[in-house]
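Hi there. Long-time user, first ticket. I'm pasting a complex I've been working with (about 390 residues overall). I'd like to know whether the download I got is complete or cut off, because the file seemed smaller than I expected. Thanks.
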Amino acid sequence: MSCAVIAVSQDCEGLQMAAFDLFERSMSADGLERAITNASLLGDLQELERIMPERKYSPGYLSFLCYLLWLGKMMDVGVQFLLFADEAEGLRAVNLARQEFEHEHPACCACGTPQATRFAKSCSACGQKFR
Amino acid sequence: MSTEETKTPESVKKIADGAMLPLDEKRVVTFIDRKFTYTFYLSRIMADDWARYFDGIVHSSRNAGKALEETLDLETPGIALVESKLQTTDGYRGDFMSKPGWQSKIPPRHSRPISWLLRTVAVSACATEDRPYDPDSIEVLLDAAWGMNKPGEMTMYQGLVHRFKPLTAEHKRKFYRAASMTRVVGGSRNGTTIYPVRYRSLVQIYDDLIHVVEGYSVNGAPLESVEAIRREMDVYHKVKAAEELFAGANEEAGGDEQK
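Hi, the file is complete. Here it is re-exported in full:
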């Protein structure tokens, strides 16, 4: 096991992969929340443990990703910041992850819901058929 | 040590009634443990002392399967702070204070609550509805344990006022960035995340934005100028007040993770 210290803000490759994982997990967040609520109400600890997703990245990646997402949204509405290099590279990594996500999970043309796979024949949310 | 054994009765002094917390006086901590009263006298805790305390905090987490293991050690730096500032005590038997390094002989059973009581500062239970709202400033009220009313009884100052100019986007960015600069040891997937100490950004934000305080004194006189506030205000109070500026904000900045 490597004992090297990783400064998360400078690990662009790790941030890109963690961002992609975050986007995929958010896609199933609503369904997961319902399943957790149902299992909690039933007191089914085994089911709770089964449905809880395993974290793929150390928690430190989520901390910096959340900061980058906040920074990006502030800049989207016109707030100007003089960016540090790690912030600029981090935003680029998030964008690349987003592009990869949109390629793997294209949005429905009717309702905008990201699909589980780019080979889906119809929308999982609204039923819109895809050509 | 059970809460029944260590009793810390408090007397309350309300800032709204004109009470003032004396920042420049010796720190005194007192409590009753198993029917005996212990009182501890410490020198004033300065900015460098608080810096050593905050820098000594260890906060880390790691994935353990589907669970998250989190470690937060405030005790070790808290006890180190107590040992470095303790000048004398009342209540112990024997003459252990005649020997050098006697401070380290204080049992953890006592040094832990001393460090807790030095850090008993929280957002006030006082209501602010009796004051009209000022759109140009943000008001934070704190309650803090400080000093001794009588042996065995601490004093609680209630409603200490910190009034700030509004936060800018740059201030928020400084704080969120400071809080997010994590390091990972042992690999990106299963390594241990080490969280940064963010008190420096909070102190800087406090000093940038503080406008007025009420309820604090030095040499018997209230703190009036911004320069005096920056110089004399206890750093732990600065951190707790500045933290409150971000309370209720999206602390997981960018918490809307959904695309």
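A couple of notes from our side: Residues 82 and 140 of chain B are 28 Å apart (CA to CA). Helices of chain B lie at 47-55, 75-85, 108-118, 169-180, 199-209, 226-232, 235-244.
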